[in-house]
User: Fold this.
Amino acid sequence: MSQLSDLWKRLQSLSADVQVRWKSMSHVQRLSGYVLAVLALYLAPWWPKIPAVGWLVNTPGTQFSTVLNDQVIIFVLVALGLNVVVGLAGLLDLGYVGFYAVGAYVVGVLTSQHASLPWLVVLPIAVVVSMLFGVILGTPTLRLRGDYLAIVTLGFGEIIRISAKNLDWLGASRGISDIGRPPSIGPLKFGVIDPKPYYWLGLTLVFLVVFCLHRLEESRVGRAWTAIREDEDAAELMGVNTFKFKLWAFAIGAAVGGLAGAHYAGKVGFISPDNFPLQLSILFLAAVVLGGSGNMYGAILGGIMVAWLPERFRNFTDKRVLVFGIALVLVMVFRPEGLLPRRVRTKSPMKSASGGQEVAQ
Amino acid sequence: MTNEVLLDFNNVTMQFGGVTALSDVSVKIFRGEILGLIGPNGAGKTTCFNVMTGVYQPTQGSVVFNGSDITNLKRFQITQSGIARTFQNIRLFSEMTAVENVMVGADARKTSSIPAALLRTKHQRAEEKESYDRSMELLALMGIADRASDAARNLPYGYQRRLEIARALATEPELLCLDEPAAGFNPAEKQQLNELIFAIRDRGYTILLIEHDMSVVMNVSDRVAVLDFGKKIAEGLPSEVRSNPDVIAAYLGVPDDAA
Assistant:
């Protein structure tokens, strides 16, 4: 145990060193740092080929780029969306898989089941429909607080799944197959074999979502959400229209969840109600809490861990869930507020309001 | 102080089940004055505040502010119509910085929402800057600008109390309700608070003050209203109220032979 905490301390001092060095860099150096980091992320499918890093990150038994897209990107997107609801606005949502399913089903219905629109056209429709579901669920339930809200949202996730299972219109338990894929552009072929284009598309979506959420966080909206999380009554007495902003948090969260679902459906080409079990809601929430509820970059890290760890330990066969569980417990013991806890923003809000270039950090 | 009635608290009765917290209380607050609201513990002072700011809906009676009935408005609408308050038990947004706390208050007067924030429109940036500048100005007025970027929970007690006042002022109220602002202050701090209250009044705000501490109430208030067991038992100049036998009885009790 003491060795572990020793290692942890060394890691901490190392990251502090890096931070100091980062701050002392010039503008150009930092910009090129960002560009390199982004490039490295787009080249992630080849990471397992790098000597030492490859041993750490590789996923035995599953193609690495498949894990990157089908697990990591999906979990990161979902964690980003759920972090708005749980981390920023402080609303416990246990049925988030519902919005994810709505996004996937909209794509399924409009590209295969009842129409054959192109995926790219359906994507914004899926986002908007998920958002509407967020509003529909939020309007009656956001009058509830805490545990009560959690129970109602738990029910919502199940309603979506069971409805999909019983409505022939949605393919019932057979599901929907032959779902439309994103359009191929030149050498970027969105087919069955190569998952890399999907990963690049997903990564681009992640950057887009991070950019948008960053802008929201650093505005009146983000302040309203945080105020509601900290003390809802005081926020309302300070003139915050709490219901409106809670509903917005739900809608934005649902939209991002729907986006993740639409991306998922476009990749796998087949969805059925069994793809959206309650367990997924719990894992999504685990990703946010593990990474650091209320910190967008924490949520991203949490999403990566929850998605990647079980794949990394796949050669432990039936004990891998145990290893995954132990990893979760260890994080919660040593980092009770998550891997990257939320931080009080110490820099002046005006500085960040003037420049939008620090998005890729 | 003028003769214009800013807030008319009209025959308000507030019942919780069988308990009557306020019974037929009427108080008028005039524009520009400092009205002290005093009374023993449990007299109904904070209930008065809660009815005014929309936390409770009165069982009977009405609250008229600036000529319009605000009895059934939502809490945030009451704040936007011009009443702001502080809390008896400090209720800051503890994980936010001091200046962010005040900006939440300033945001009450702003309109830019999600689309504007996403597009970062000119209007939105102007509003952000306005909120920030006004918040820093208010922190300076309260004398706590030096800790503007500290988390509210890390501020010393006296700073937290003053931060609450700054946050309430940021909503640009016409009526500022202070719920026991001197609680836990030492005499020197109370003296500072008195000066602060005058400074706020001189900027054109009307102030309703709940306070236990007589040295603060009697020095600061233009008029004083006294509550006891949910009833108003006296109202008038501080000097009049101080010598009112009912008030003395309420605070000190009545000798057995006189009861």
